[in-house]
Amino acid sequence: MTFDLVAELQDPEYTIADLEVMRDRALDRPYVSEVGRAIADAAQAEIERRTAE
């Protein structure tokens, strides 16, 4: 089963504040897993995409 994280985070239902919380939660752990890093990176990329518009 695959999940398209980038497409999910582009859902306009998620606000920039929501994305920032996702990013910070993923990185605010003593050990950041590969999945956590992927979530943080994807959330940051979406934040940057939206603020560049």
Cα distance, first to last residue? 33 Å
Q: Note the total helix count.
A: 3
Strand content: under 5%
Mean pLDDT: 88
Supply database-style keywords.
mainly alpha; globular; 68% helix; 53 residues
What does this structure look like?
By secondary structure, the protein is mostly helical. The protein has helices spanning about 5-10, 15-25, 35-50. Helix 2 packs antiparallel against helix 3. The longest helix is centred in the last third of the chain and has 19 residues, at about 35-50. It starts with a helix and ends with a helix. The model has no long low-confidence stretch (mean pLDDT about 90).
Short description:
The chain is mostly helical and 53 residues long. The protein has three helices and no strands. The protein has helices at 5-9, 16-27, 34-52.
Walk me through the topology.
Blueprint: H1 5-9, H2 16-27, H3 34-52
Helix pairs in contact: 2-3
